[in-house]
Amino acid sequence: MRDRLDAGWVTAARTEPIKHENTRFEEPNGVVWVEFGVFELDSASQVTVGINNALHRHVGRAVASVFQPIEWDASNSDGGTTDAEAVADVVRLIFLGANQESLVITVAANHNIYCRPPAIDTVGRVGAWYQHNVVVLYHRDAIG
After folding, report:
1. Hey, which of 48, 77, 100, 136 would disulfide with 55, CB 3.0 to 4.6 Å?
2. What is the mean pLDDT of residues 22-44?
């Protein structure tokens, strides 16, 4: 999921900094930035019969939180939340499959991640930031 975001960021020629989980990051001042994390929601469910090669399904969500300073300088934008909304839409498009359908990310043989179409949720004001979350629900299947 992280690789998908990073590759899409480069393709879209975006320059906003991204904070990934468990990495050092200094929160920038006065610019839009993104925080990205992937979270498994529950333990795996066995979905096929078998002992050594049963299919296990893991369900989770990826969240890209887009932050824009509350006191946004009008020279950077229109002074509203337009920039954060535009960045959130770029993230949404990175995780959206063809024809507005689900996206399949192939990680390895017999190991795919199936993403549902992303949703953008407006959180609103959080401290000195205005926040939008792009939420991607997914499941991944693993054999073994």
Report:
1. 48
2. 91
pTM here is 0.84
Model pLDDT for residues 88-137, shown as the tens digit of each residue: 999 999 998 766 667 788 777 667 888 999 999 999 988 889 999 999 99
The structure tokens 């959180």 sit at 123
Which among 41, 57, 48, 61 is positioned nearest to 115, based on CA atoms? 61
Domain, as residue range, for 119: 2-143
Instruction: Say which CATH number the domain at 129 has.
Output: 3.30.2000.20
- Number of structural domains in the chain: 1
- The encoded tokens of residue 94 equal 């990175």
Q: Which token pair is 11?
A: 């393709």
pLDDT of amino acid 76: 53
Kindly provide the residue ranges of all beta strands, DSSP E only, lying in the chain, ordered along the sequence: 18-20, 33-40, 45-46, 55-69, 103-108, 111-115, 119-126, 129-143
